[in-house]
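Suppose a colleague, Dr. K., hands you the sequence of a protein chain of 469 amino acids and asks what its three-dimensional shape might be. Before reaching for any lab equipment, you can write down a predicted structure in token form. Begin with the sequence itself:
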Amino acid sequence: MLFSSMTFLYLFLPIVLLFYLITKKELHNPILLIASILFYAWGEPRYLAIMLLTIFINYIGAIAIEKYSYKRKLILFLVIISNLSFLVYFKYFNFLISNINNIFNSDINLIKTVMPIGISFYTFQAISYVMDVYRQEVKAQRDIYKLALYICLFPQLIAGPIIKYHDISEQIDARIVNFENVSYGVKRFIIGLSKKIIIANTMGTIADKIFIQAPDTFSHITAWLGAIAYTLQIFFDFSGYSDMAIGLGFIFGFKFIENFNYPYISKSITEFWRRWHISLSTWFKHYVYIPLGGNRKSKLITIRNLLVVFLLTGIWHGAQWTFVVWGIWNGFFIIIEKITDIKNYESKPHNIYINIIRHFYCILIFVIGWVIFRSDNLKYAWEYILNMFGILNIDENNIVYNISYYIDRLDIVTVVIAIICCMPVFKNMLTVKNKLTATAINIWILFLFIYSTSEIAAGTYNPFIYFRF
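The predicted structure, expressed as tokens, is then:
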């Protein structure tokens, strides 16, 4: 079930919210748990058993880690392997077999399976839980229903944010539901919905028109248009979903961590990854980078750790070489910036021209990265990038469409709005104290909701990019 669907907006959410608000606090967790299971089963009934089995394995495993302390490392290893086995089977098995077949010229049969929605996200949350118990940061949860609620809570079940158990354990036991939180949550949800429907879907339509064609069949300007359109699409699609998830969290009394902090204003790739998909970055930092030694040892070990983290970041996004290379691409520049000590450089005052150069450097790197990320294969990505820089040999006779086929005047206005919204211009919009300004903002948000839902009712293009990860 999509957040940006009429079924969710006008049936599922109102019913769940009604039951939640009119019942006693003691019933809030059971209502949310039932709603979360129904939410997942709506779209993936055949894979519900996988998620329930994940909950059971981690419930038993965490208790065993506490009870049998002398075998805690072995138990932790077995639980993590069990979690990852589901992920590897459904997400990576065919990728591994295909590469084995290519390398050894073998003919091992692939399996026919569909990856369960959200498995990358709830698997990482489950691992977070057992790791927190192993580190003695939290106690093992004896109530399996509360653990189940943590792993399958529907606002962030499908595409995050990835919530670490120690950040939310207390909220599962006790949280405040009041008018202020519900009001903020509703407005935050509508902002996210609008980012998805009005901006991301428009940019996605432009990008899809371009990326579906061979790189030698469109001009250099069109190549840049496709790259920029996808750069805007993936940000507003994913941050829009995160806004909706965070908004729903507020409605039900939860406070999830922010997942995006205006990443496109960054002046380095290091800063970009402090602002982009924050929950994934912090997960890898706490459960991979720091356990490997972080930056506490030699610079060579630090470089190795960064390579491992960004290689895994790429692999996490999907079973495709483009994702692997995208991860390495980002890791390469992170390492370069680490070697050149850009962190200390960033702390020094610079003139406006140096800051502009640094900003454009960062934009160039992540736009090229998104081309790699979006492409179906590495050959396509390479030729597309060559086209962007005028290196690809293009026969003018092969160009079927001019630029007006891909973008019209309304789309140009949307691009301009999207670029403005990438900057913290409206950062504190939902927390203004002036009554007149707040009223105007509320009216505007109501208009956005009406417009967005009308677009949902009329349109067909409405996928979430991160649902396939």
